[in-house]
Amino acid sequence: AASVMQAAADNRLHLLILRDGQPLRRTPVSLAPGPLRLLATREGSRLTLIVNDERTVVFDDPFPLAHDATGAFGVYWPEQVAIVELHGELLRTPADPSPLEQGDALFAQGEFAGALSAYQQLQTPEARYKAARAKDLLGEQAEYVAMLEELFRDQRPDNAQERQWPLMAGVRLLLERLRAYDYETVDKLLIDLNAGYSFEEI
CB under 8 Å to 36, separation ≥6 — which residues? Predict the structure, then answer.
């Protein structure tokens, strides 16, 4: 415990959200002496980690991990640190899933054609972005890029949750233009990204 507190004092402690061992989000954290309370949640595409009801790390993960029928929940914990209480909850899959939920489930299983059909039933920014990603994984590159361009050029939604999808489309479009050595378009995209989004959002 003393080494943990020293690490916190030296700004060497970080909150991490990992996927397949790769960090999705990393945030420095300072800890006061006393019990440690951790809360991790997933609501839709949003992953949240909260420490002591104060420090929060948030990451929007567009697609769920593929999962088996049983699922799993566990804690990797140092032997010398006691766990006072451990609690877990699971939301059941809806009996009548929405087209977006159907698409996410199919996408996670690698059924990209089926996922595309489900996403195309909707015209929300999230569904349009995910439909474009399905096109990409189906090898339909021209349509993929065209769908990214259309989503990115549309008016920016006011809702923070919805704003992320045109932003993600713009970033993917930027990567595609970099791969094509289209630096003139890259410069224009960077200007548009800076004009439409704050540094924190990007």
Answer: 51, 52
What token pair was written down for 160? 């923070």
**Torsions phi, psi of 112, nearest 5?**
-70, -35
Closest-CA residue to 62 (of 128, 121, 143, 117): 128
Report the C-alpha dihedral over residues 162, 164, 165, 166, rounded to 10 degrees.
100
Residue 38: predicted pLDDT: 85
Residues of the chain predicted below pLDDT 50? 1-6, 8, 67-69
What is the Cα–Cα distance from 41 to 29, expressed in whole angstroms?
18
Largest CA distance in the chain: 58
Return phi, psi of residue 55, to 5°: -75, 130
Query: At a CB cut-off of 8 Å and minimum separation 6, what does 197 contact?
Result: 156, 163, 167
For 93-126, the pLDDT digits (tens) are: 677 888 998 998 899 888 999 999 999 999 999 9
Q: How many CB atoms lie within 10 A of CB 158?
A: 7
Cα separation of 23 and 14, whole Å?
A: 11
pLDDT confidence of residue 138: 96
Give the pLDDT score at 65: 60
